[in-house]
Amino acid sequence: MLEKLMVVGGRPLRGTVQISGAKNSAVALIPAAILAETSVTLDNLPHLSDVAIYTEILTDLGATIDWNEDRMTIDPSRMKSLPMPNGKVKKLRASYYLMGALLGRFGEATIGLPGGCNFEPRPIDLHIKGFEALGAEVSNENGALKIRAKELRGAKIYLDMASVGATINIMLAASRAKGVTIIENAAKEPEIIDVATLLNSMGARIKGAGTETIRIEGVTEMHGCRHSIIPDRIQAGTYMIAAAATRGDVTVDNVIPKHMEALTAKLQEMGVHIYEMDESIRVVGQPEYESVDVKALVYPGFATDLQSPMASLLCQARGVSILTDHVYSNRFKHIPELVRMGAKMKVEGRSAIIEGSQLSSAKVRATDLRAGASLVLAGLSVRTGGITEVSGVEFIDRGYENLVFNLSSLGAEVWRESEE
Ligand SMILES: CC(=O)N[C@H]1[C@@H](OP(=O)(O)OP(=O)(O)OC[C@H]2O[C@@H](n3ccc(=O)[nH]c3=O)[C@H](O)[C@@H]2O)O[C@H](CO)[C@@H](O)[C@@H]1O
Ligand SMILES: C=C(OP(=O)(O)O)C(=O)O
């Protein structure tokens, strides 16, 4: 049943919010468990629809999964590399990690192209080039990729772009290849380090994760272990922006402040007051904000996944802000919906030009996860009150654990209703 979120504007968020484990780590760590011969236990696992779908996929492939609150144990010992050309793999982006993990363990995988948030074409040519460099043959059969290798051999791989997905997918397959793989121009996102940490605990030999050169010495066997997932820096950032947008006072707990630096710096530049503790950040909103220019870049730059929520806050700054996305040239599906709410913004090339404006409540539609977050934040920050109806909640559920509960405990009036 499809649902919409009803969001009442004008209430400052106040209190403390706990951040769950990272979605973009979880959806890589779950398939990484395929590479082990014995059980892998993941702690701090977020309750998200992407995680639930991944669990079903691994069960279909023969894994036994025990998921209790935020802990999941995956026993991959009886798994097989069954073809998955359609169905569940089309529901999420990160199903592409099945390719690297199944290739590493079984030497073959037949997997449909990934789904998820298609705010623009999202090619996986670099993943395929990586598998081919490791000695795999890749063919496209009726829209599914058939990937096979008699023997995976280590190789030197230069990524044309520092792709998160390609870096992790190559690490997965190369962990079980013969010899050494070097990934140059690797992505440096914290989730890459999280995946390498798990793989090393499983017996892999990976060095340099988090830098642009990653060295993977293949091993013949990997085993189970226990691993705690890093906090979700995008959820954390969304609540930080929400605190500023509603002129609230929110402590975001269970975060790694270092992961938030690019956002923290931009919020401070706008005039938001921020206090960093060891594992939490307090954000105190102010009556007036200055406009700023924001460039979404690969880590440690400003995260593209926070670009859409940031657009909602920039509506409230004095003057003109320019928000440019250097990772995705066309990730602006939220802009026309924000304009429906009275925002003065337009898209020019890969930038949104945003003028300060008064938002008002409206009926809007989320067509991807972070666009959805942006619309919820806009609804919360409508100063004149009123109810904003955000449809497309299924996208928001991909990435925000307990959103309604969390916002309500911060004093917001938010609830779900079924969409007729
Ligand atoms: C599940 C997951 O972790 N998703 C994240 C991951 O997505 P994802 O792994 O899909 O993003 P990438 O880092 O691969 O994409 C970065 C850029 O490289 C391009 N590209 C990528 C691969 C490829 O083979 N060819 C190619 O041209 C993309 O179109 C994009 O312009 O990183 C993105 C960038 O931080 C985030 O927005 C997503 O939340
Ligand atoms: C784009 C995102 O996720 P995915 O790559 O899983 O679609 C996101 O988390 O903002």
UniProtKB/TrEMBL annotation:
Question: What is this protein identified as?
Answer: UDP-N-acetylglucosamine 1-carboxyvinyltransferase
Query: Which positions in this protein are listed as binding UDP-N-acetyl-alpha-D-glucosamine?
Result: R93, R122, P123, I124, D125, L126, D305, V327
Pfam families linked to this entry: EPSP_synthase
Function per UniProt:
Cell wall formation. Adds enolpyruvyl to UDP-N-acetylglucosamine.
Q: What is its main location?
A: cytoplasm
EC class: transferase
Superkingdom of this entry's organism?
A: Bacteria
Report which gene this protein is encoded by: murA2
Q: Which InterPro entries match?
A: Enolpyruvate_Tfrase_dom, Enolpyruvate_Tfrase_sf, MurA_subfamily, RNA3'P_cycl/enolpyr_Trfase_a/b, UDP_GlcNAc_COvinyl_MurA
**According to its UniProt record, in which pathway does this protein act?**
Cell wall biogenesis; peptidoglycan biosynthesis
Which residues are annotated as active site? C117
Q: Which residues carry this modification: 2-(S-cysteinyl)pyruvic acid O-phosphothioketal?
A: C117
Q: What is its EC number?
A: 2.5.1.7
What's its catalytic activity?
phosphoenolpyruvate + UDP-N-acetyl-alpha-D-glucosamine = UDP-N-acetyl-3-O-(1-carboxyvinyl)-alpha-D-glucosamine + phosphate
Q: Which residues form the Enolpyruvate transferase domain?
A: 9-404
Family to which this protein belongs:
Belongs to the EPSP synthase family. MurA subfamily.
Q: Where does this one sit in the cell? A: Cytoplasm
Q: Where does phosphoenolpyruvate bind?
A: K23, N24
Q: Which UniProt keywords apply?
A: Cell cycle, Cell division, Cell shape, Cell wall biogenesis/degradation, Cytoplasm, Peptidoglycan synthesis, Pyruvate, Transferase
Question: What CDD domains does the record tag this protein with?
Answer: UdpNAET (cd01555)
